[in-house]
Write a structure and sequence with these properties.
Strand content: 25-35%
Structural class: alpha+beta
Number of helices: 5
Radius of gyration: 21 Å
Number of strands: 9
Helix content: 25-40%
Largest sheet: 5 strands, mixed
Distance between the termini: 45 Å
Strand order of the largest sheet: 2-9-8-4-5
Shape: elongated
Length: 177
């Protein structure tokens, strides 16, 4: 088995193609699954058969940058699940994840507007903006934020108001840009 690509961002959501070696191929009525086994999390994903030697799946989101074991498992009615092949896969931090972390740590910080000037100078071409926006949103959902985190930052002058009702993520993003 060969995985292509061999890495995914921490937030996952990219297509992973599984190329089966000749010895990995099995009968047509077999269902394949991929099990991503990391140090603290395990993910099981279904696959879609593209051809007799090619499968596809969507990479799951993961909790940390690390190399995980990917097991290709097969299941056939009436038989136990068996491991067909095994390969390493890497979860990595990318620019979208970095941007999401920056936004989360800059909540309530008006100086964060300097980041927009940075994006103006080194940002993606205009065609990639929508893609970057989607990736940052996915990365933001996978961030580990403290329970007391909110989009307004840590301003204590709000005295007991429900901070989550005061500003949405969208409004936070608009305020930065």
């Amino acid at each position: 088995m060969k995985l292509n690509p061999q890495q995914a961002p921490l937030y996952g959501d990219c297509v992973v193609t599984v190329l089966l070696a000749e010895e990995d191929k099995v009968e047509d009525d077999v269902v394949f699954y991929l099990v991503f086994s990391g140090s603290t999390l395990h993910h099981c994903t279904s696959t879609r058969k593209v051809s007799s030697d090619t499968l596809e799946t969507i990479a799951p989101g993961h909790d940390c940058c690390e190399t995980v074991k990917v097991l290709l498992c097969a299941s056939k009615e009436g038989l136990p699940v068996f491991v067909v092949a095994e390969e390493d896969f890497h979860f990595v931090q990318d620019e979208a994840y970095d941007a999401a972390q920056f936004l989360a740590t800059s909540a309530g910080n008006q100086q964060a507007l300097n980041f927009t000037r940075f994006l103006d100078r080194s940002g993606p071409p205009s065609g990639d903006v929508n893609s970057l926006d989607e990736k940052v949103a996915l990365a933001f959902r996978h961030l580990k934020l403290p329970a007391e985190w909110n989009v307004l930052g840590t301003d204590q002058t709000l005295h007991g108001e429900n901070l989550y009702d005061l500003q949405t993520y969208f409004q936070f993003g608009i305020r930065l840009f």
